[in-house]
Structure formats: C-alpha cells, structure tokens
TrEMBL record:
Gene Ontology MF annotations: GTP binding; GTPase activity; guanosine tetraphosphate binding; translation release factor activity, codon nonspecific; translation release factor activity, codon specific
Alphabetically ordered keywords of this record: Cytoplasm, GTP-binding, Nucleotide-binding, Protein biosynthesis
Name of protein: Peptide chain release factor 3
Entry-linked NCBIfam families: prfC, PRK00741.1, small_GTP
Domain Tr-type G, chain residue ranges per copy: 21-286
Cited InterPro entries: EF-G-like_DII (IPR053905), EFG_III/V (IPR035647), G_TR_CS (IPR031157), P-loop_NTPase (IPR027417), PrfC (IPR004548), RF3_C (IPR032090), RF3_dom_3_sf (IPR038467), RF3_GTP-bd (IPR041732)
Pfam families cross-referenced by the UniProt entry: EF-G_D2, GTP_EFTU, RF3_C
N-terminal signal peptide: none
GO CC annotations, alphabetized: cytosol
Compartments, as annotated in UniProt: Cytoplasm
One GO term (biological process): regulation of translational termination
Protein purpose: Increases the formation of ribosomal termination complexes and stimulates activities of RF-1 and RF-2. It binds guanine nucleotides and has strong preference for UGA stop codons. It may interact directly with the ribosome. The stimulation of RF-1 and RF-2 is significantly reduced by GTP and GDP, but not by GMP.
Residues that hold GTP according to the record: 30-37, 98-102, 152-155
Organism for this UniProt entry: Bradyrhizobium septentrionale
Length: 536
C-alpha cells in the first residue's frame, strides 16, 4: 500500500524534482546602453550575491588582468566573454547567463540563448525597441523562449506608455500585459501602480527596495507632486485596464505574450517586481530536444550540453572552461560522464559553480544549472555529456559567417602548428574554420570583425603565430547536404575548388557572391544549402 503511494508521489515530490522546480535560468537581451549591466548588478544585489554595486562593471577589468589577449577588451571597453551568475532569492535559484554586449560576438549570444529557459528584455523607455533587441528577440522566438519585459530609465524623459506597448506589439508581434503602470514620467516619475494589487510603489518610499506597495489614492499623489496630472493618470489607468490583455500564463510560456514591468535600474526601482515576476511566471528548466527523444529535466540520470568554451583564464596553462547546461538529473563532483561524441568517459573532478563572480567548486548541480568544466581541449561546443545514454542534444547552432578571410602565415614553417591552433579556436567557437579541399590555405569565417582581432591576438599570444588575414575569393559559406549520397558526391566532385570542410569535416560550399551562390543552387538539384548548422 504505502509503496504505491510512494511511487505515485515520487515524480513530483522527489528531492531532485524539487531542486529542478526551484531553478530559473535566464538571460537578458537588450540593445547596448539600455541598462543591462546596471540591471544585472541590481538583480545580484537583490540576491545578496554581491554587496557592492558597481562590481559587475569592475569585473571586466579584473578579468582583463588575467590574460594578455583580453587587452582587446580593455582597449576597446567591450566585454568579449560570456559569464554565468547564480544567486538565490525567495528560495529560488536564479542562473543569469550574461552575454557579450558587442554585436560582433553575437554568435556567442545566440548559443547562450540555447541554454536558457526564459529571457528578460530590457528596453530604454526613451528609445523603445532598438535594432539589436529586435534581432535577439527573433532568436528567442525561434526557440519559443518566454520573454519578460523591463522598461528601464523611467526616471528620465520617456515615451508615452501606450506608445511603447504598442511598439512591442507591432514590431515584435507579441501581446503585452503591463504588470505595473508608471505614475508620472521623467522628472515627475513618482513610482508605479501595481496592476494586480492596486497599490502604489513610490520611488522615494520604502517600496523602492522592498517592492512593498502602499494603498494611496491617486488624488493624494497629486498633492505630493503638484506637477502630476491626476486626471491624466486616472484616464491612463482606466484605459489600460480596459485595453490591455489580462496576463495569461500559458500565452506567456508559449512566447505569445510578455508581462511588462516599468522601473529604473539605476535607482534600483522596479527590479524587485521583475525578480518576483521571473520567480512566479518564468518556467523551471524545460525538457530539451535530443536526436533520440525529449529529455525531461527531472529525469534522474544526468545529461548536459556545452554551449560555450572560455579559454585562458590562465594564459600559462592552456586551460579551457566548458560551460555546460545541465538538462536532466544531478551532477556531483567526481562523477564520471560519457562524452557522447567520442564515446569516452571523463571524470568531472572539479566542476565549477558560478556564484556571482567567484568561481567556486560545486559539490552538486541540478538540471537548469550551468557548470564550468575545466579541460584541456577535450570538450567542444555542442558536446553532450550523459550518464551513459548515447543521445545528443540538438539545437546549438552555427551560423554561416558574414565575413570570410584567408589566413596568411608569416612563417611558412609553422603550418602544422597553425592547423592545430585553428582547430582549437574553431572548437571553442572563436571563429569558424573552413579547409578547402583543393589544399589551399585555411579560410576563417566570422560574424563580426572583432572576432578576427581576437583570433589574431590569441594566435600570437598563445601559439606565437603571427598571422595576417587576406581578402579571399570567397565571401559566402553554406553547408551542403543531400538525402542522396551520390548526388552530394557528384556535386562535390563538380565544384571541387569551391568545397571546404568545416570543423566536423562536413562539406561547405564557398561562393564568391550571392549571385554565384544563387546560380549554383538553382542548378544543384537535390542539394540543400543551409546557412545554419546544428553543432554536433
Ligand atoms: P548596457 O549594459 O545595456 O550597455 O547599459 P548600462 O547598464 O551600462 O547602462 C548604460 C547607461 O545608462 C549608463 O550610464 C547607466 O548608468 C545608465 N542607466 C542604466 N539604467 C538607468 C536608469 O534606470 N536610469 C538612468 N537615468 N540611467 C540609467 P553611463 O553614463 O553610460 O555610464 P556610467 O558612467 O553611469 O556607468
């Protein structure tokens, strides 16, 4: 009897599923300058993960001192690396996956978005939806990642609230539900009205930090600030409650609706509401697609995939940290896991947990968490680790490069070393490498030119390989495949001078320009040309 009861209850009550249900793994998407760094800092403050504001920005500088190649970051004031920050709030564990701010490193950002279950979209209240926000939103939409919106900088002059909501709805085709509503704007921004409780949270009151609301009549707010147009506020609130869709959890989870919060990251206002919203509405770790089946987060056997490699925490040892998102089960320090690509087991002797800035040794991590696995080149982007099952997670993408260059080595004697170095760099996702089948020197492909600067600096610093990049006859790369092996072989044979192998040895068609690509494609019956590839 009791056995049956235990069995029925265990799927939802097991310690593992309880741990999984506590996780919220998310990223922040925004256009540069909208306030992502400031918001990150304040979120961490809420979680008690750091006690000093300003640490997130300082982080870049501290990291830069760790290695030479990151000089690029320091000189240009940009952040190249992606990091993970874990903090607790209200008994929930939040994993915030940071993404590089500069769009030249957007490949890194896209891959990071494969490892989250939800995203916070930060919008500058004066600017609305900007180009990069829109692009990152599209990536989220491809993966049905639910989005929570934070309209930031309400303490400054901002656009009309309805206009902002309308812009989100129209440009992103996403329904909006304001969860809070701004009272006053710019210099006269007093706080927010909480749509659910009907209370008011004042910028200059205790509610700014605690998130607590007070029941204050709008008329009384007018007495506090004579500039506030009380009638207008009342009209807006009445119109908002009439015109805006009520919040619907299912629509949000499916990516059709976004709850909207208003605030000021700089003034630490509205951040608590946002965090509460994330805790309440954002999904716990979702099931992940693999080549064999969907893997549920609360399954007992551990599985994970690598979405990012970060090298050179210490330039003297070519150490790499592979960032792996746990998809199911529990990872314990010292456990063995199978690297499915090679079929070999590896010991996870010192996985690292990312509690705020400190890399600390974790004893255990659960589905939804991200761990750093130190290795010397064993792990590459897209790798799957399991407790034995031969499944491979799908969906970590590689994008066709926007820029293709030929690598010219100044010292021809070092060709072999260059080959090895380029292989490593492509496994880390620094650049993509294409090896022409006709034996010509390697081509590298990137999304943004700064990636080339990073490659050059790293080849020089780590491998003593000074290189130059030359314009190549090719400017486009497309992965080619066919259901019919013979057709693919025939195409490759007929176009040999334009065929290269990527890092996995998969064939890529290199084209001079769009016209030539289109011309070839039209005549290549049965061949698929793709500008995205799932990393295997
Ligand atoms: P990003 O990571 O999205 O690029 O943005 P970041 O947080 O660095 O913020 C960009 C600028 O906007 C910063 O000012 C920051 O202080 C300011 N900011 C962020 N949130 C708010 C807000 O809620 N209200 C107001 N008024 N300003 C905000 P900066 O002058 O460029 O940098 P700093 O010298 O102040 O650090």
């Amino acid at each position: 009897m009791s056995d049956t009861a235990a069995t029925t209850e265990s799927p939802s009550r097991s310690p593992l599923s309880e741990e999984v249900a506590r996780r919220r793994t998310f990223a922040i998407i925004s256009h540069p300058d909208a306030g992502k760094t400031t918001l990150t800092e304040k979120l961490l403050l809420f979680g008690g993960a750091i006690n000093l504001a300003g640490q997130v920005k300082a982080k870049g500088e501290r990291r830069n001192t760790r290695s030479d190649w990151m000089k690029i970051e320091r000189e240009r004031g940009i952040s190249v690396v992606t990091s993970v920050m874990t903090f607790e709030f209200n008994d929930l564990v939040f994993n915030l996956l940071d993404t590089p701010g500069h769009e030249d490193f957007s490949e890194d950002t896209y891959r990071t978005l494969t490892a989250v279950d939800s995203a916070v979209m930060v919008i500058d209240a004066a600017k609305g939806i900007e180009a990069r926000t829109r692009k990152l939103f599209e990536v989220c939409r491809l993966r049905d990642i639910p989005i929570i919106t934070f309209i930031n900088k309400m303490d400054r002059e901002s656009r009309d609230t309805f206009e902002l909501l309308d812009e989100i709805e129209k440009t992103l085709a996403l329904d909006t539900t304001p969860m809070t509503w701004p009272v006053g704007r710019g210099r006269d921004f007093l706080g927010t009205y909480d749509v659910v409780s009907g209370g008011v949270r004042l910028l200059e009151g205790g509610g700014a930090k605690t998130g607590a609301t007070e029941q204050i009549d709008i008329g009384d707010l007018g007495k506090r600030n004579p500039n506030l147009d009380v009638a207008e506020v009342r009209d807006e609130l009445a119109l908002a409650s009439e015109a805006c869709k009520p919040f619907e959890l299912a629509a949000f989870r499916e990516g059709h609706l976004t709850p909207v919060y208003f605030g000021s990251a700089l003034r630490n206002f509205g951040v608590g509401d946002l965090l509460e919203g994330l805790g309440k509405f954002a999904p716990a770790p979702r099931a992940q697609d693999s080549d064999l089946r969907k893997v549920e987060a609360a399954e007992p056997r551990m599985s994970a995939f690598v979405f990012k490699i970060q090298a050179n925490m210490d330039p003297n040892h070519r150490d790499r940290i592979a960032f792996a998102r746990l998809c199911s089960g529990k990872l314990s320090r010292g456990m063995k896991a199978k690297l499915v690509r090679t079929g070999k087991n590896m010991s996870l002797s010192s996985p690292q947990f990312f509690f705020a800035q400190d890399r600390s040794v974790a004893d255990e991590a659960f589905a939804g968490d991200v761990v750093g696995i130190p290795n010397h080149g064993t792990l590459r982007i897209g790798d799957t680790l399991t407790e034995g099952e031969d499944l491979t997670f799908v969906g970590v993408p590689s994008f066709a490069p926007e820029i293709v260059r030929r690598v010219r080595l100044t010292d021809a004697m070092k060709a072999k070393k260059l080959k090895e170095a380029l292989q490593q760099m492509s496994e880390e996702g620094v650049v993509q490498v294409f090896r022409p089948r006709d034996g010509a020197p390697a081509l590298v492909g990137v999304v943004g030119p700064l990636q080339l600067d990073v490659l050059k600096a790293r080849l020089d610093a780590e491998y003593s390989l000074p290189v130059e990049f030359e314009i190549s006859e090719f400017s486009l790369a497309r992965w080619i495949s066919s259901d019919d092996r013979k057709k693919l072989d025939a195409f490759v044979a007929a176009n040999n001078s334009g065929i290269a192998d990527d890092v996995d040895g998969d064939p890529v068609f290199m084209a001079k320009n769009e016209f030539y690509l289109g011309y070839t494609r039209e005549r290549a019956e049965g061949i698929t040309f793709s500008n995205v590839k799932d990393v295997k």
